[in-house]
Amino acid sequence: MVNQNAEQIARDKIDEMLKLAGWAVQDKSKINFNDGIGQAIREYQTDVGPADYVLFVDKKAVGVIEAKREEAGEKITAVEDQTEGYANAKLKWVNNSEPLPFLYESTGVITRFTDGRDPKPRSREVFSFHRPETLKVWVEQGNSLRARLQDIPPLNPAKLPAKDLGLRDCQETAITNLEESLQKARPRALIQMATGAGKTYTAITSMYRILKHAKGKRILFLVDTKNLGEQAEQEMLNFTPSDDSRKFTELHVVQRLKSKFVPKDAEVCISTIQRMYSILKDEELDETLEEQNPAEQLTKPKEPVPVVYNPKVPIEHFDFIFIDECHRSIYNLWQQVLDYFDAFLIGLTATPDNRTYGFFKQNIVSDYSHEKAVADGVNVGNEVFTIQTRITKEGETLQAKQQVEHRERVTRRKRWEQQDEDEKYSAKQLDKDIVNPSQIRTVIKTFKESLPVIFPDREHVPKTLIFAKTDSHADDIIQTVREEFDEGNSFCKKITYRVKKDKTDKDGNIIEQGEDPKSVLSSFRNLYEPRIAVTVDMIATGTDIKPLECLVFMRDVKSRNYFEQMKGRGTRTFDHDELIKVTPDAKSAKTHYVIVDAIGVTKSLKTASQPLITKPSVPLKDLAMGIMMGASDTDSVSSLAGRLARLNKQLDADDKKRIEKVSGGVSITQMVVDLFSAIDGDKVEEQALILAKQPKGTDPGEDNRNKAQAEMVSKAANVFNGELIELIDTIRRDKDQKIDHDNIDEVQIADWEKATTEQASDICKEFVEYLEQNKDEITALEIFYDQPHRRREITFDMVKEVLEKLKSDKPKLAPLNVWQAYELLEDPDNKKEQGNKPINELTALVALIRRVAGIDDKLSTFNTTVSKNFQTWIMKHHSGSNQKFTKEQMAWLHMIREHFVNSFHFELDDLEMSPFDAQGGLGKMYQLFGDDMNKIIDELNSELVA
Question: Labelling 205: which of 119, 455, 697, 739 has CA 20 to 30 A away?
Fold first, then answer.
């Protein structure tokens, strides 16, 4: 309407918002309570003056709206007292004895809401107004959600150990702190837990308690890849609460969303953020867009297509949103999904950055780092083994006039051509423009030959994951691994997002069976083969593969967060009984994992991950994906149209037929025409005038122009889907890779990566200082330092006491970390046998204390010390006129020696435990040693720890 003032414009917007939310907007002189379930009455009279809007549900006044001009948005909270005054006022024609519970302030752009039923009513910003059906239910419920959150009982009132609740300590802490945060009505909370510490299990436990005790209505579990959604669904299917014998999915309806339909009866919905965005736009989603983490999508709209109110999924549909991997995919375009819902937001991540902390308002309810997890035995640590080859570091030169093999990336078709001139290629070009088979083979061969050093006493190749640069690179690696290890196809597999289809001949007969990536992943996780998997990025993050013991990096990673996530694939603990099912010669539970750095990934400069908006040179595939996802800026559209036009000139008849078959008959030529038309200035102006309902010659405004162009680009982009883009990109790709057969690579480094001497020295110094400070407070330390004659009295529990206090006070002084530091200082040339490592952190701790206390003059594993002392004792006993032990007696003494290695002390009661009980226990030992039994035990307790 022409010549409206700012207040009238705001009220028109508010009217439209109310109508979309299901309210009948009426003038005070035309009240009709039969028009729907809820009415918003303008200028309703109260005893303190007319309220801008009074909300009625089933003929009962329930709320009030205070309307303000848009410019008042910056001080909208200042009018809350005014809103509250109308809510407390006496309404005309209504006998309202209590204040109206639901209070809104709105400019039509910003809307804030206060629920007067809350324990401490506090306004919050909402995307739009709640529906009348919702307010009706809320009135009938009496207590608000925030009031019901106060009813959640303490998680552990009896102060039992967390394991008695089926939880880890870090999980109990996270759940308790989250519930306190919710009870304080903090709108956002961040759970930072190390990879493998059980974030999803923690989230499901919280969901269960919220649904049971606070009567939460619906919860959304938001992920950013289909793979993570399937994994979360499986965990919910397996979850059984500690106070109920039924499965979580038997108690509550859980639904993973696969279309734009959101079932109202589902109490927990699992969805990718991409799908939820499309649901809010009321559009179907191509499933291929759920396979890739959208944070890695190179092209995104400069001005995101805005989410608008969707009555099928109102803002109050979910009460809580748990956001998995919240460090990467909830910003820019995707943040609109979170801003839309009037819900508590709970983030889950192992690797937050400053942006994550800021989004969750620095409300960190769990701060459980990888270092703490390693110290607690929840995660295992890593060691770095470096493989450096000359060509990996320096690159090489293709000489002029030599015959060079050219290979098509996709078809792998080969041809030979003479090199015109010398061509120097850098390490960064390897496996992209130039492939040097010798470089790949040298890395893989060195890895194979180094396995006895990396994993001593192993015959079977540990479960290994190799990170490749591209699909083509991955295929080259797989072929080389199979050849160098002299194994078949099942030994080494590629894991990708897409199902590998059956290969057929011209008659349709299957000549090579296809594979489902889920099946390959399951086999890698649970079966003996494959031993080695190669991936570009599918299992870089978020996928649980506990038996994985080795990560080989043949690609660099520049994002610090992404690198930490990739490393996280190896951090999971795995007990011995489970590990030997897939790795038969594993000697113990998984104690650590090894990073084999074949590209310098552990040394390269890392940056905090940032959302990628554009790149100086964006691949055609990413341009097309960006346009399909809603990018409508002129640069992106014109660039895509230009690339397609150039490609069109290179297509043969068969290529064009293939494209038109997938596109539904639309040719590349037509696509180009439609894209250029969508950004044609005259056509955009014409459409903008239509949207503005203005005649030609007037100015429709920049907003309408942007909206018009977005609509026209969206229409032109309807032809694009994942399959078509993949096909176009396959056809378009640079046909050639040059294969360098002439330059042979050579190994420069194949050795353990060490911390710097300075860092190691600092760690050792801090460890010594810690022991000195606590030697008078902890019994075991007091004995080691000042009472050497009492070392025979040290027990397992005493050593464990030291370890637990150390973990609590100084997590970074985890024994295995300190061990590595001492190793570097005492063995800088790495002359020690590589397999001579501590059995576990307790034995490492005892060895370190002995070294610091001066008992040992150099670092030695405790099992080595015990074995050496045992041998000395046996030789002393056998010398002279002493009777030698029999073969059966020696077998028992060897069992006692092995017991010492892990328990540090031996008592008669131990004879009634494994493995002694199975051999006859106390009675059998007395039968073998007679009256000398106690004397021998005393001697062993003294001599083996000398």
Answer: 119
Closest CA relative to residue 347, chosen from 369, 320, 373 = 320
Q: Which of 333, 295, 359, 229 is nearest to 559 (CA)?
A: 295
Task: Report the pLDDT averaged over residues 236-250.
Answer: 93
Please name the residues in contact with 784: beta carbons below 8 A apart, sequence gap of 6 or more. Answer: 775, 791, 794, 849, 850, 853, 855
DSSP character string of 742-792? S----EEEEEEE---HHHHHHHHHHHHHHHHHHTTTSHHHHHHHH-GGGGG
pLDDT tens-place string over residues 326-381: 887 676 667 888 999 999 999 999 888 777 888 888 899 998 887 777 767 788 77
Contacts of 756 by beta carbon, 8 Å cutoff, 6+ apart: none
Q: How many CB atoms sit inside 10 A of residue 587's CB?
A: 14
Taking the CA atoms of 831, 834, 836 and 837 in sequence, report the sign of the dihedral they define. Answer: positive
- d(Cα 366, Cα 177) in Å, to the nearest integer? 7
Region 654-659 average pLDDT: 86
CA distances from residue 420 to 423, 425, 435, 473, 689 in whole angstroms, order as listed: 9, 15, 18, 26, 58
Residue 282 sits at φ, ψ, to 5 deg, of 60, 45
Rounded to whole angstroms, the Cα distance separating 110 from 370 reads: 41
| Exposed / middle / buried, residue 488 (Cβ in 10 Å: 0-12, 13-18, 19+) | exposed
**CA–CA dist 875, 862 (Å, integer):** 20
Tokens of 574: 């795995």
pLDDT: which is higher, 331 or 391: 391
Q: How far is CA 222 from the centre of its chain?
A: 12
Tell me the C-alpha distance between 455 and 945, whole Å.
Answer: 28
**Partners of 434 in the β-ladder:** 430, 738
Alpha-carbon separation of residue 368 from 13, 166, 179 (angstroms): 46, 18, 17
Distance between CA atoms of residues 29 and 758, nearest Å: 83
Res 591 pLDDT > 50: yes
Contacts with 788 (C-beta within 8 Å, 6 or more apart), sequence order: 855
Pairing type for strands 403-408 and 414-418 reads: antiparallel
Euclidean distance between CA atoms 131 and 316, whole angstroms: 8
Buried residues in 203-223 as b, exposed as e (16+ CB within 10 A): bbbbbbbbbbebebbbbbbbb
Amino acid 222: pLDDT = 94
Q: Cβ distance 768 to 775 under 8 Å?
A: no
SS3 of 878-903: the string is HCCCCCCCCHHHHHHHHHHHHHHHHH
Question: What is the rounded CA–CA span in Å between residue 298 and residue 294?
Answer: 9
Q: Give the closest residue to 66 by CA, choosing from 32, 43, 89, 97.
A: 43
Alpha-carbon distances, residue 303 vs 186, 356, 642 (angstroms) = 30, 22, 21
d(CA 733, CA 437): 21
The 10 Å Cβ neighbour count of residue 10 is 23
**Tokens 């005892």, residue located:** 846
Contacts of 683 (CB under 8 A, 6+ apart): 677, 712
Q: E strands along 338-420, which residues?
A: 344-349, 364-368, 381-389, 396-398, 403-408, 414-418
Rounded to the nearest 10 degrees, how much is the dihedral formed by the CA atoms of 589, 592, 594, 600?
Answer: 160
d(CA 481, CA 445): 8
Spatial separation of the C-alpha atoms in residues 465 and 551, rounded to whole Å: 5
Nearest to 869 by CA among 934, 935, 784, 940: 940
* Side-chain half-sphere exposure of 405, counting CA atoms within 13 A: 14
- Alpha-carbon gap, residue 816 to 591, rounded angstroms: 10
pLDDT at 855: 80
> Which residue in the block uniquely carries the two structure tokens 């353990």?
752
